[in-house]
Amino acid sequence: MLLAEQALNGLQYGMMLFLMAAGLTLVFGVMGLINLAHGSLYMAGAFACAAVAAATGSFWLGLAASLVAAAAAGALVEIAVIRRLYARDHLDQVLATFALILVFSEGTRWLFGSFPLYLTLPPSLSGAVMLPGGLHYPLFRLVIIGFGAAVALGLWWLIARTRLGIRIRAGEADREMIGALGVDIARLYTIVFALGAALAGFAGALVGTIQSVQVGMGEPVLILAFVVVVIGGIGSIKGAFVGALLVGMTDTLGKALLPGLLSRMWDAASANTVGASLASVLIYVLMAVVLILRPQGLFGAGAGR
Amino acid sequence: MKLKRLLIGGAAAIALAGAAGAEPVKVGMITTLSGGGAGLGVDTRDGFLLALKNAGEAGQQVELVIEDDQQKPDVAVQIADKMIQSDQVDVLTGIVWSNLAMAVVPAAVAQDKFYLSTNAAPSQLAGAGCHPKYFSVSYQNDNLHEAAGAHATDAGIGKVFIMAPNYPAGQDSLAGFKRYYKGEVVSEVYTQVGQTDYAGEIAQIRASDADAVFFFLPGGMGIAFMKQYAESGVGKPLIGPAFSFSQDILPAVGDAALGVKNTAQWSKDLENQPNAAFVETFQAEYGRLPSLYAAQAYDTANLLLSAMAKADLDDADAFRAALAQADFPSVRGKFRFGPNQHPIQDYYVREVVREGDVLTNKIIGPAMADHGDAYAEQCKM
């Protein structure tokens, strides 16, 4: 029973990481851009959700606002800053997008203050539900799992079945060629960037609802999202999905099980300490193992990229 | 950029310096003003400033430099170095978190600065690591948790699940609780500092056969846990130190906290004249109820002012003796220092209640009287 609940926790965490990593891997794969400011877009979505939900009293409007605000912020940033960076090397991109983190963080602090904001769930989403097998589980965490799965399906359909998806895949394969074929590459990039931003903002709003909305909330998640992208293979949505679930499960189950296993050897306090540290190292061990066996990532397009 | 500086009454202090006979004392306040722990630092700052304001002319003798440590030990160390070397402060204060205090305090007192703690009081600095220039005006870290353990024993709770963040104050917390709890601890869990998702811990609580949960999660950690606990449908009663149900946490947690018992050395309904004045002026000045952190900082500032009235800071021994007398009107009613310069005071059990449309705490009984700490004997100075 405990294991089932922890597995659901891992699944929920993985879905959240997927929402974050999907945008990152798209931008990385299609544009070859390292976007450190992705965590800021996650934060922007969370703040938009909190502000709109507080102003209108409707959580659903807040959630919609998180998508719109993060997409708008993403498009704006792409046009104003990112567009100038495609031809530059990765160091310039890292510097510029790191600067964006600082701008976003201070700007948000200026607008909303340093105090964390807290969202209240609508009654229809709050509380726990009984799952088959008698397990009680918070409804909203199930909703996050559902949203994550829906986004994964939607993205797969978008990439595999639509004209825009064809262009995105083509852009990934050879950007000069599709430019020469008459595709407006600048607009394509803006759309992809805004799409990634919207997903990050959506993830921020969902997570902000169960945790808290505060300046700097995006950076810890960003690091994990990069781990997911590396494990899954750069540019692969499928890889991001599998990688996110792997990381989510490994982290959650590691934290849940390791202290118990170690306490058979040591006393509770040190088993706890060592177990918790080992658990946080586990995902990086996972990344290292994947990189040794498949340097291009699980679903990467090839080592040459 | 992130550092905010505030110089209070600098020019006025110099102008008045001749009058009161004492030179202005420069105080460096390092506290947490951003991120999940910001509520604690903001209350610390506001409580301290209020005491200076209420003291009138005497308060203007204190020149205060305030900086945000972002709840990061490395940032706190940088600020402390800067305050000691370039601002040349005489007294340091304000640190909320024990891991930051461990990074700053030993070095500061070694450089001959006084450190008056408004909150953090790790066991390491109460026992063998005590120092003549270090005073804790709040408590010793274990104290509130010891009181909670005593309360859990009195309430006849047979089995508890205990949980705290993995940092000095968290370890002190669980040690303190277990020192006075006579029942069975079924599980002991350490979480990460700054952790915001408690799904894993809540699953463990659900699976355990504990009758109650004791937890110490200050600031944003407590808010996140309480909200998620309420959503989880796990109904086991909660007990904790005041930090887990402090005035900075209650508005965000909401009704989920109603009826929860917690332990503290202060409460806003404690009946004494200094406390009534403190609560009234705090509300008038800031438009909200004061938290425990504000009360501790208010007492710290008044302790400093009482010593400044008795001794000159240049005479460090006399100044230290004046501090040790603790001759100030404490909002806790009675207050004195033990041999290791940590408080000997009363602890109370409080309950979270609704007053009008705000949630707050009300004292429902005593927990421990004239309680010192377990480390005083190890202190040699």
From TrEMBL, chain A:
Membrane topology qualifier: Multi-pass membrane protein
Primary location class: membrane
Keyword Amino-acid biosynthesis: no
GO molecular function, one term: transmembrane transporter activity
Entry superkingdom: Bacteria
Subcellular location: Cell membrane
Pfam family, one: BPD_transp_2
Membrane spanning residue stretches: 12-34, 41-61, 67-86, 98-119, 139-159, 188-210, 222-248, 269-293
Annotated keywords: Amino-acid transport, Cell membrane, Membrane, Transmembrane, Transmembrane helix, Transport
GO terms under biological process: amino acid transport
Entry GO terms, CC: plasma membrane
Family named by the database record: Belongs to the binding-protein-dependent transport system permease family. LivHM subfamily.
Protein name according to UniProt: Amino acid/amide ABC transporter membrane protein 1, HAAT family
Phylogenetic classification of the source organism: Bacteria, Pseudomonadati, Pseudomonadota, Alphaproteobacteria, Rhodobacterales
TrEMBL record, chain B:
Cross-referenced SUPFAM superfamilies: Periplasmic binding protein-like I
Pfam families membership: Peripla_BP_6
Family: Belongs to the leucine-binding protein family.
Species whose genome carries this gene: Paracoccus thiocyanatus
Signal sequence segment: 1-22
Keyword Signal: yes
The entry's keywords: Amino-acid transport, Signal, Transport
The Leucine-binding protein domain, residue ranges: 24-356
Protein name: Amino acid/amide ABC transporter substrate-binding protein, HAAT family
Gene Ontology process terms (BP): amino acid transport
UniProt KW Transport keyword: yes
